[in-house]
Structures are given as C-alpha cells and as structure tokens.
Please model this.
Amino acid sequence: METPTPTFWEIVLEFHRYRRPYGSEYEHHVVALLQSVGFVPCAGGIIRWGTNRELFLTAHTDTVGVAGANNLLRVDGRFLVGDGLHNIGADDTAGLIILYHLAQTRPDLTLFAPTGEECGGIGSREFCEAHRDALPRVVISLDRRGYGSVITHQRQERTCSDAFAQQLARMLGRDYAPDDTGLFTDSAVFSRYGSLECTNISVGYENAHCPGRASRCGVFGVADTAIGADGFHAAS
Ligand SMILES: [Zn+2]
Model:
C-alpha cells in the first residue's frame, strides 16, 4: 500500500473543514470544491456527467451533527481524527473525496453528489423524479463504513443481485465481500425508482454519526481504491 502524499492529506483536510447538515450554508463548501472539477447543478444536488450514463457513482454532500468548523482535525497515522466531541463528517466526506479524484481522471463515469441523504434521501428523490425516464441501470454509492462491504440489502430489502455483488467484490479485491446488513443510502432511492443493480460499498470511515468519540476517516479506501475500465478495482 502506498503512503498517502501531502497533497492527498491537504485535500482530505479541506473536504473535512466543516460539518454540513442538510440545508446549512456549510454544504456549499464541498459543492464549490466539486464544481471546481466539473460538477454542475442538477435536480437534488450536483453532477459530473460522464459518457457512461448507465452507471452512477454517488456520495452525499450533507453530514449529521451540529453545523460548524472542524477546528481540531489532525492526522493520526492513516486516520483523520477530530476533537473527540463532534463527528467530523467522514460520512460521507470520504465518498466525496473519491468523486473529486475520479472527476479528474475518469471522463467516462457519471458522478452524482446529492444533498439530504441524512434526511431520507431528499436529493436522490428529487433527481429520480426529474429523470424518471432516463435513470441509470447501476448505482454504486460510496457511503458505507469500514473496509469490506458490498451491500446487497438496505433495510432488509434487496437492492442488488448476489451475482452483481460477487462480481463487484472480486473487482474491488482486498476484503470486499457481499454484505446484506445495509441500512439506507442514496442507491436505495434509485432502486425504488427502478434502477436494477444498486449497492453501497465501504469507503474506509469508522464511527459514523458518533459524537463523543474520535471519529476517524480511514483513508485506506480513499487512497487505494480506484475504478478500472470495467468497474471498480483495488489499485496495487
Ligand atoms: Zn452517509
């Protein structure tokens, strides 16, 4: 595994500058960062259209917790750590950082950053309502804690097939495997609107939604997961 570069950490810190509840002014900070690499406004959020519109990757721009600055972020080994009192919003800032990198390297991929996921998927519902006749076949949310989940079910409802999850887990490598214990994220909304294969994969954060403990953003997934020509794969 390669050691993350200083530039990498600068980007990680910049994206985590604020906790950003839905509708708060602080959400604009990450929206502006993504617009600097080609995202444009769309129903429910911002999007970077790719040449492939059958596959969407998503990460949401809002976070849980009290709005405000993360003043005491520090790097601890391979983790970003907060003040121990507030969550740092790594859910889903970790996913946004992956979208930011992919926007600069993968013109084929369509990258969607909805708002309001933590309030029931408000942004994704708006998008699906506005694009009912042109929804993607496959939606991969980059919004799962930990290091090895390829989610097949959200709130016990199946959102992708076992065959799809197994294939994606093989592409991702490492410890990735199908996992039926998903809760809810944006891809579940697309599933309800008819997208066929909708999953959520681990992007390396821990302690989601947990103030009172040091929230940590595992950069493992951000640094080393890439998407190959035929889908996700783990970079060597
Ligand atoms: Zn999330």
User: Anything to note?
Assistant: Confidence is low (pLDDT under 50) at residues 218-236.
